[in-house]
UniProtKB/TrEMBL annotation:
Record-linked InterPro entries: Tetraspanin/Peripherin (IPR018499), Tetraspanin_EC2_sf (IPR008952)
Main localization, broad class: membrane
Swiss-Prot/TrEMBL keywords: Membrane, Transmembrane, Transmembrane helix
Keyword Transmembrane: yes
Cellular component GO terms, alphabetical: plasma membrane
Name this protein carries in UniProt: TSN36 protein
Species annotation: Helopsaltes ochotensis
Signal peptide bounds: none
Short name of one Pfam family: Tetraspanin
Alphabetical list of Gene3D superfamilies matching this protein: Tetraspanin
Keyword field contains Transmembrane helix: yes
């Protein structure tokens, strides 16, 4: 379990590098760091449990049980807090995404991240392609189209024009 959590934490931290422009709050990495710390603690606790079992120590097994109960309570608390604050997180991420989309000009680092995100997640805009109609880039280009990263991969002749929404 500790190895699995370590992998998940490291994967989230590594993936963060691709999306750091969307997550301007540096505390967004906090859950991943906590996951890695929990993995280390779980490894130590696993060693305590193994040693206590091997030595048949009642005190060691009691300590192991107490630690497992504390971890269980912490996991339930984290689940409840995640459930309670999910809408706030969703609203904050959407607001940050909208501000990054506003900075889109096709050349700056934010534009590269937006294009990468849309290509990787097979999406267009924050909610859909119509989100682009309110951006400065859309108004400045005047060609009534969205970035080509909005195009579906199987669409051969996609130009990004809004009159062909089936290609987006």
């Amino acid at each position: 379990a500790a190895a699995g959590l370590s992998y998940v934490g490291a994967y989230v931290i590594n993936t963060y590098k691709s999306y750091d422009n969307f997550l301007q709050d540096k505390y967004a990495l906090l859950p991943a760091v906590i996951i890695v710390c929990v993995a280390v603690v779980m490894f130590i606790i696993g060693l305590i449990g193994c040693c206590a079992t091997f030595r048949e120590s009642r005190v060691g097994l009691g300590l192991f049980l107490a630690i497992i109960l504390v971890i269980f309570i912490a996991e339930v608390s984290a689940f409840v807090l995640g459930f309670v604050y999910r809408e706030k997180v969703k609203t904050d991420v959407q607001g940050t995404m909208r501000s990054v989309f506003e900075k889109y000009d096709g050349k700056n680092p934010e534009s590269t991240v937006v294009n990468y995100l849309q290509e990787q997640l097979h999406c267009c805009g924050v909610k859909n392609y119509s989100d682009w109609t309110t951006t400065q880039w859309f108004n400045s280009t005047g060609n009534n189209s969205v970035p080509l990263s909005c195009c579906q991969q199987e669409a051969k002749n996609c130009t990004g024009h809004l009159d062909q929404p089936q290609d987006l």
